[in-house]
Amino acid sequence: MNWLSDDAVSRLQAASALPDLAGTRYRIIQRIGSGGMGAVYLAEDAVLERRVALKILDLPDASGELATRLLREAHILARLEHPGIVPVHDAGRLSDGRVFYTMKSVEGQRLDLLIVSVGALSDRLRVFQRICDAVAFAHARGILHRDLKPDNIMIGPFGEVLVMDWGIAKILHQPVDLARGSGEEGRAAVTCTVVKTEHGTILGTPGYMAPEQARGEVESLDERADIYSLGAILQFLLIGSAPTARPVAAIARKAMAEDPASRYASASQLGEDIARFLDGLPVTAYPENIFLKIARWGSRYQLAIVLVLTYLVLRAILLVWFRR
Amino acid sequence: MTSNTEIGGRSGQFPITRWSAILAARSKDPGERSRGLEAIAAAYWKPIYKYFRLRWGKSHEDAKDLTQEFFARVIEKEFLKSFDPAKARLRTFLRVCADRFLANEFKAAKRLKRGGGAQHVSLDFEATETELGRTKTSFSAAATPQAMDDFLEKEFIRSLFGLAVETLREFCASRGKQVHFQIFEAYDLLGEESNHAGYAELARKFGIATTDVTNYLAFARREFRRIALEKLREMTASDAEFRREARALLGVKPE
Fold it and tell me: Which residues on chain B are in Cβ contact (under 8 Å) with A3?
């Protein structure tokens, strides 16, 4: 046999890693990333003539466990039809045996990279509200993300916010309409294989993972683990913000409380507290004394106060003038 | 002049009763144990020979004898019984064994008579020496264990891909798909990155349509991947190790 040069070995590695899309409607354009168990490629859907993101197992999977996990991720995405969650288009198995699914190709930037160019705290908080909306929707559908972090949030070119990478999501319960087994989603739920994560298994990202998740308490994890991660994201968004953002810092602290019972009960409540801050209203996580209340009130009604004061001063000047 | 020596089993002919050659090599059944060890020797003799040449600065003749003797010892002394896949990679284990063998045992070792085994494969040391001349790697005396493991990993991948290419050649020939293999060879194996043949050129050369070139290439690559992973699976002892090794083999870098 001819000697395999370094170039030949590299070409063989690349060719072996590349998905074999023969017989499918997709054509690879380029590799755009990889995660724990799969690679993501930018591909072209030749039938609909549009670009899609194609996620595929890039490792051999003799036991079929990884394939089950990837398909499960596709099923979860199919269940979560929401503007803040990337939609899945298709799933299947290639001729080389590897499992794949395709989803919307998101042309945007990761939150952790974009944040440097979003200076205003209010803009950052509006992004955060949309993350809370998407996560609250997933929770309502019985899905826990378990790996929320800035790297998994994409901001699209028109400001759309998308929560990505549901690879280690946990199904908490079947939502009511799925449990009835009616409609398209009902069928998806039936075919979705349950993958149980063993107790003691630690899945997630340090720094964004709730303490109970870091301890591997898989069975008892609930929505409040994601609330903790949202708090950590909020804290990340506060980097470089003014001291006036103390109520927001308090919101982040409450979301990240050590005891899950002390956190917000839902992502919606967390989002609502952010909305109250943006509207100049008191937030539940930040008790105010009289001075803080006056300061906030003053800040909220700044224009009206200036107008009233101006009116009163002018009126006083006029009174003095006519009495002379 | 070639001065080949025979040791180990025929590559690509490992009769799989266990999917792992490592587990087979630790089996109580002598036949299975022998086949497992032969499969390991077939995949690792080239990396170990190059290791003796580069790391220990042995001459061609000495490295040849050492390689034969080392694998004869691996087979006779059942070194692999003490290998624990949970603690180390097979490559690292073999490197440590090779170092220990060189330091302590070679002086007392008697050379294995050539052709002494029951099943044989030709070890083409001359060709391997030529390969070594093209290898850009060199070791300093202070090379770290990590650098040595990296070298062995690179050479193991080259060796395993080489075995897979040979198996693919036989597979294609047995199914009358020699052109498929030739296109794969011309496109993926030969030449440098800058000058290897394009689809149109190959289509002209083989008198087929350009779409056939891409289809034939896709077939050969798919089979190559299957064969390479099958061979890799033989060299691992668990699913977790297989996945870890497949990352290195396929050049998949976790991000």
Answer: 127, 130-131, 134
For residue B239, the distance in angstroms to the closest alpha carbon of chain A comes to 7
Is residue B89, in this structure, part of any structural domain at all? yes
Edge to edge, the sheet with strand A109-110 lists A109-110, A153-155, A161-163
Q: What is the pLDDT along chain A (324 residues), one digit of tens a residue?
A: 556 888 888 888 888 878 878 778 998 888 888 766 778 899 999 999 999 999 998 776 767 788 888 898 899 999 999 999 999 999 988 877 788 999 999 888 889 888 777 678 888 999 999 999 999 999 999 999 999 999 899 998 888 999 988 888 888 876 544 444 433 333 333 334 444 555 555 566 778 999 998 888 877 889 999 999 999 999 999 887 666 678 899 999 999 999 999 999 999 999 999 999 998 888 888 887 777 777 777 777 778 888 898 999 999 999 898 887
Domain count, chain B: 1
Domain assignment present for B255: no
Residues of A within an 8 Å Cβ radius of B: 1-18, 20, 22, 33-36, 39, 58-63, 95-96
Q: Which CATH number fits domain A108-175+191-287: 3.20.20.70, 3.90.1150.10, 1.10.510.10, 3.20.20.370?
A: 1.10.510.10
Question: Are B255 and A35 a contacting pair at CB < 8 A?
Answer: yes
Distances in whole angstroms, Cα of residue B7 to Cα of each of B93, B176, B227: 20, 31, 23
Determine whether the interchain pair B188/A11 forms a contact, defined as Cβ–Cβ distance below 8 Å: yes
Query: Which two three-digit tokens encode residue A289?
Result: 């004394």
Active site residue A147: yes
Is B217 part of any domain? yes
Token pair, residue A236, equals: 């990340």
Chains A, B: CB contacts within 8 A come to 97
Residue numbers in B near A62 (CB within 8 A): 233, 239, 242
CB contact under 8 A, B255 and A34: yes
CATH superfamily, domain A19-105, is Phosphorylase Kinase; domain 1 (3.30.200.20)
Task: Map chain A to HEC letters.
Answer: CCCCCHHHHHHHHHHHHCCCCCCCCEEEEEEEEECCCEEEEEEEECCCCEEEEEEEECCCCCCCHHHHHHHHHHHHHHHCCCCCECCEEEEEECCCCCEEEEEECCCCEEHHHHHHHCCCHHHHHHHHHHHHHHHHHHHHCCEECCCCCHHHEEECCCCCEEECCCCCCEECCCCHHHHCCCHHHHHHHHHCCCCCCCCCCCCCCCCCCCHHHHCCCCCCCCHHHHHHHHHHHHHHHCCCCCHHHHHHHHHHHHHCCCCHHHCCCCHHHHHHHHHHHHCCCCCCCCCCCHHHHHHHHHHHCHHHHHHHHHHHHHHHHHHHHHHC
Question: Cβ distance B33 to B80 under 8 Å?
Answer: no
Threshold 0.90, pTM exceeds: no
Range of the domain at B181: 5-249
| Phi, psi angle pair for A45, to nearest 5° | -85, 110
Among B233, B240, B231, smallest CA distance to B42 is for B231
Residue B254: inside a domain? no
ipTM: 0.75
